[in-house]
Amino acid sequence: MKIQGLKLVFMVTLLIHNSECVVAEEKNHQQKKTYIIHMDKSSMPASFNDHSQWYESSLKSVSDTAAMLYAYNNVIHGYSARLTVEEAESLEGQLGILSVLEEMKYELHTTRTPEFLGLSKSEALFPESNSVSEVIVGVLDTGVWPEINSFDDTGLGPVPTGWKGECEVGKNFNSSNCNKKLIGARFFSRGYEAAFGPIDERTESKSPRDDDGHGTHTSTTAAGSAVVGASLFGYAGGTARGMAAHARVAVYKVCWQGGCFGSDITAAMDKAVEDGVDILSLSLGGTISDYDRDSVAVGAFGAMSQGVLVSCSAGNGGPSSESLSNFAPWITTVGAGTLDRDFPAYVSLGNGKKFSGVSLYSGKPLPDSLVQFVYAGNVSNTTTGYLCMNGSLIPQKVAGKIVVCDRGLISRVEKGEVVKDAGGVGMILTNINSYGEELVADAHLLPTVAVGEKTGDAIKKYLFSDSNPLATITFEGTQLGVQPAPVIAAFSSRGPNPITPEILKPDLIAPGVNIIAGWTRATGPTGLQGDTRRVNFNIISGTSMSCPHVSGLAALLKAAHPEWSPAAIRSALMTTAYTTYNNGETIQDVATGKPSTPFDYGAGHVDPVSALDPGLVYDATVNDYLGFLCALNYSANRIKMITKRDFTCELGKKYSVGDLNYPSFAVPLQTASGKGGGTGAPSVVKHTRTLTNVGAPATYKVSVSSETQAVKISVEPASLSFTEPNEKKNYTVTFIASSMPSGITSFARLEWLDGKHIVGSPVAFSWT
């Protein structure tokens, strides 16, 4: 990510208040915490006229002073309030209360893209703009900067008749800031203010206005209007447009300088569904928790049950395994890949060698002559000086020189500011092992080039061996047609699914590296306080950027197929995704330089043109997810928390997680040691799926390819004939697996083909 005024750790935008006043405010509130109280709406006593009265009464029964923050009526039933631990425990025993959960804090996961995805040259295949303009994309984020041209409503007709949303008034924001493009804007701060105290309106707008940039970037990526001549300081020049450029946008500000809080997020999702959005896009995530304890997962279920597709970022915790956020099976989980576009910059050394990297620097260049350069670790007053932390460099040893800094711990542009403040004239930012060869460009404040780990090692070898090391940095603008592309971003979070390994996540990947989109005028492109530059477009990276790509593409599919469910739309995007380049090689992982796997890319890289006509889809209803929760041994109480339904799992019925009608397969298997009481004999696992015909009558034949001999795969039947629209057919896959040592993974692919369509599903095996 490049929201550098906020603390960035490994490209995850962590919105953290650093001011002493906010820390003091938080301490003052520590005796109470915000809880979300899930209520059984059907249990309301007859003595109450409405649920709000009941909720208020339950709260007052444990606290005379507590006030309700929000009442929830759509995605969940219940309310939120600030309570002591004792008060929360007292509530838990009351009739009609399903659970009392402490709210979770969430973090943001922080143009060429339409061409790369094939949208520009295939426009005739997509729905007409009139039908797309009936689709509403709701974005939960840091708000919106409405004045930029990405929200121009020229050519759009009246707002869709079913829209019930509003343009809320607040600081620096009034109702006239909305139009026929940006049709709604709300803000939710009660949970945040309950934790941190009142918002400081000297530094932050208590309104839908975006003072950060992240929300403007994600909303315009999903559905921004086309803007000719867009660029960042001349980089990535061209027409910038959202994936669904004619769709309407509704913005829900839930993230503030101190973070994004579960009570606010739940309130925003609740209101968005009531307002009438068709797609919800959330580029944020929390810690790993069970589905019924995750506000986003619970809210997403409520939205999905009312026909709203919820798209979420997978997280920026890669390349570590099991680093995912937002892995509930009713959420579309999006990882990040690169584009075929780069921003090359070069390091020329005193020994005549020249190395390539990337940069978005646009200021005064370095002189043509070579200048001295030093390693930060050798010109520092701390043991971690190589990281160029604030105040760590010795100005007398840095002045007039280029400084080599290692990446990590603080934001990339912040390191450049540290070098500049110490008198340095340039920076070479070198990757360490965890970042590998991943290159992320930034609009640095001084001449800077970012280089991969191998290049960094070569530069350091010269630096440490020469008595008078010299270097300079040059910049080459924008380069198109870079290959291979895409590659998996190192930061993109990976599977397996940390809660339910039988559900493969992420679902797919989309562009998330060096993405240009709209920006706020309240802060510069780096987000640093000292960055006085102002831009209408910015280039940043993260799964925060890949998520709205899929949100916008889902809007296009919704316009083309308004009758499709959220599961059908996700299935179309997944089963048509690609996993190889044109030469047949598997998409690479930039973190390793090796072929990636379904734990990295899920079903593959999104291909929107193919997704319009997938042939068959794996549909799923609320009942399918009820069976999934039964397979997880959820109690009736926990199921009701998520689904708002009275449902008891049938005694004696065998529920299987693997039988959820999901477009991919994940198969945990027995180890050679016979874990779980086994003897090392082959494991037999069966998964059943249902395919729905959304194309012309056709006969599909199955094809299975596998990289391992340790698992025999059979499909019954091997052929499926469809004669009617929406006709459904079942099939069963049997996996017979030999025992293997723990920690082994392997992969296969199952496809249904009719000569026109390829309905593909990844298969992931893991021996644990």
Query: Into which percent range does the helicity of residues fall?
Result: 10-25%
Mean pLDDT: 92
Structurally, how many domains make up the residues?
4
* Fourth CATH level, the homologous superfamily of the largest domain: Peptidase S8/S53 domain
CATH architecture of the largest domain: 3-Layer(aba) Sandwich
How does this model look, in words?
It is a single chain. The protein is an alpha/beta fold and 768 residues long. The chain is 21% helix and 27% strand. The strands form eleven sheets. It has a seven-stranded parallel beta sheet with strand order 9-12-8-15-17-18-29, with helices on both faces. Strands 21-20-26-22-23-24-25 form a seven-stranded mixed beta sheet, with helices on both faces. It has a five-stranded mixed beta sheet with strand order 35-42-41-37-39, with no helix packed on it. Helix 7 packs parallel to helix 13. The protein is globular and about 80 Å long. Its main location: secreted. Residues 199-221 are annotated as: Disordered. Residues 659-764 form the Subtilisin-like protease fibronectin type-III domain. This is Putative subtilisin-like protease.
Summary?
The protein is an alpha/beta fold and 768 residues long.
Layout of secondary structure:
Blueprint: E1 7-9, E2 12-14, H1 20-28, E3 33-39, H2 51-60, E4 68-72, E5 78-83, H3 85-92, E6 97-102, E7 105-108, H4 113-116, H5 129-132, E8 136-141, E9 182-187, H6 190-196, H7 214-223, E10 227-232, E11 235-240, E12 248-253, E13 255-256, E14 259-261, H8 262-275, E15 279-282, E16 284-285, H9 295-305, E17 309-313, E18 332-337, E19 341-342, E20 344-349, E21 354-358, E22 371-375, H10 395-398, E23 402-406, H11 412-421, E24 426-430, E25 448-451, H12 453-465, E26 470-475, E27 479-480, E28 487-488, E29 508-511, E30 515-518, E31 537-540, H13 543-560, H14 566-575, E32 588-589, E33 594-595, H15 598-601, H16 608-611, E34 616-617, H17 622-631, H18 636-643, E35 665-669, E36 683-693, E37 698-706, E38 711-716, E39 719-722, E40 728-737, E41 745-753, E42 758-767
Parallel strand pairs: 8-12, 8-15, 9-12, 15-17, 17-18, 18-29, 22-23, 23-24, 24-25, 28-32, 35-42
Antiparallel strand pairs: 1-2, 3-5, 3-6, 4-5, 7-14, 7-16, 10-11, 13-14, 19-27, 20-21, 20-26, 22-26, 30-31, 32-33, 34-36, 36-40, 37-39, 37-41, 38-40, 41-42
Subcellular location: Secreted
Biased composition (Basic and acidic residues): 199-215
Region (Disordered): 199-221
